[in-house]
Amino acid sequence: MEENTLSKLFGLNELPVAEAHCDGPCGVYDPASARIAAEAVRSMTKKILDLTPPEPGDTQAVASYLNTVGRYVAIKEEQAELAKHELLVLWTDYFKPVHLEAYPDLHEVFWNAAKACSETKQHVSVEAADELMAACEKIHNMFWESKSREVTYYEAS
To answer: Whose CA is closest to 34, among 80, 94, 103?
Structure first.
């Protein structure tokens, strides 16, 4: 019933689907979501590197190992993509041209952070994951400073 009313009101045959965070704009931003995803990337990277491959002849152990590696990699990939999304939302929706005065390297910081997300997807590298975490910390500090708030950066793990 509502769809029919809205369709008539706006003269649409079909209502468009809207997805957001957040082109509203809602005004709710926090770099913590990117940090949490980045921490998961680092955690999964370490877990992958800590795995010991089984002897090739042990079919059950090989299957279990491959299952575990596959799960860890899937989580790492998903969280790296989520971190990139969260960072891009901050970059494109929260930060405005006026922030460039205070942070002339803003675009480079975000560009490198997004590249770090891709690097963690392409490789199993603690160094790349640490670079992503460092980028998240820098963005955290820029973000909260831009809001004139002092929010301590911390890691959950």
So the answer is: 80
CB 29 within 8 A of CB 90: yes
Token pair recorded at residue 4: 């029919």
Tokens (6 digits) for 117: 């997300």
Instruction: Show me where the domains of the chain are located.
Output: 30-146
Confidence of residue 32 (pLDDT cuts 50, 70, 90): very high
Q: What's the pTM?
A: 0.83
- 37 Cβ partners below 8 Å, 6+ apart? 79, 80, 82, 83, 86
Q: Answer yes or no: CATH 3.40.30.10 is held by domain 30-146.
A: no
Q: Are 37 and 135 in contact (CB under 8 A)?
A: no
Q: Cα(140)–Cα(36) distance, rounded to whole angstroms?
A: 12
CB 23 within 8 A of CB 93: yes
